[in-house]
Amino acid sequence: MTLCLAQTPMQPQSQLRTDLTGTWEVIKSKSDKVNNPLGDAETKAVIVQSGPEIRITRSYSANGKELAQQIIYYGDGRGETYQSPLTGNLVSSKTKWEGNELITRYSARRTYPGRVIDVDMIEIWKLSKDSKILTLTIRTVLPPLPMLNEPGGIQITSGPRDIRTVYNRASK
Predict the structure, then answer these.
(1) Mean pLDDT, contiguous 10-residue spans, the chain (172 residues)
(2) What is the pLDDT of residue 131?
(3) pLDDT at 150
(4) What are phi and psi of 159, to 5 degrees?
(5) Under 8 Å CB-to-CB from 54, ≥6 apart: which residues?
(6) Rounded to 5, what percent of the chain is helix, strand, coil?
(7) Which of 3, 54, 65, 125 is disulfide-compatible with 73, CB 3.0–4.6 A?
(8) For residue 74, what are the CA distances in angstroms to 49, 125, 168?
(9) What is the pTM of this model?
(10) What's the CATH number where 139 sits?
(11) Residue 7 lies in a domain
(12) Does residue 6 form part of some domain?
């Protein structure tokens, strides 16, 4: 009797990623209030992930109106361009997997009293170990403080600010 053993090649690192696919409902009690009409009105996110493409449709409900916006991210770092639902401006971002976190980086223009500045934005999507909770952390990274705290400028003393939206898996 002859026994043949076949060795299967290891999966490429890019295929060993967390699958975020599912319908996710916002848990308001665990999410940060952001004091903007759109952010505080989010109700759910529907994510469809296929290879490097992650299609996220976020739904919002406020004052009896429903709004949905879909953004397609590419976890292989090729980059995306989409319209910001908050400002209407075009956003150019780059998304990639860092371990089991999906990280999107982009710059945004923000207005502070008396000045408009560019800030770095980082969005971090992370799935819990039991795959039941998905957390989106949006981190705002301000430019170096000496630039901001110059005479006649604005005074900012805090570092990066994180805002978290927590989702519960409604269905796979």
Answers:
(1) 42 62 96 76 94 95 86 96 82 95 92 77 96 95 63 56 93 86
(2) 94
(3) 58
(4) -85, -150
(5) 20, 47, 48, 72, 73, 74, 75, 95, 102
(6) 10, 55, 40
(7) 54
(8) 10, 13, 23
(9) 0.79
(10) 2.40.128.20
(11) no
(12) no
Rounded Cα distance between 160 and 36, Å, is 19
Kindly state the tokens that stand for 125.
């999507």
Take residue 90 and report the two structure tokens written for it: 């075009």
Structure tokens at 100: 């089991």
11 within a domain of the structure (yes/no):
no
One-letter amino acid of 116: V
157 CB burial (10 A radius; 0-12, 13-18, 19+):
exposed
In a domain, 13, yes or no: no
Report CA 1 to chain centroid distance, whole Å: 56
Q: Which residues span the domain enclosing 72?
A: 18-171
Residue 50's Cβ-side half-sphere holds a number of Cα atoms within 13 Å equal to: 3
In three-state secondary structure terms, 117 is strand
Residue with tokens 């009409």: 37
Number of domains composing the chain: 1
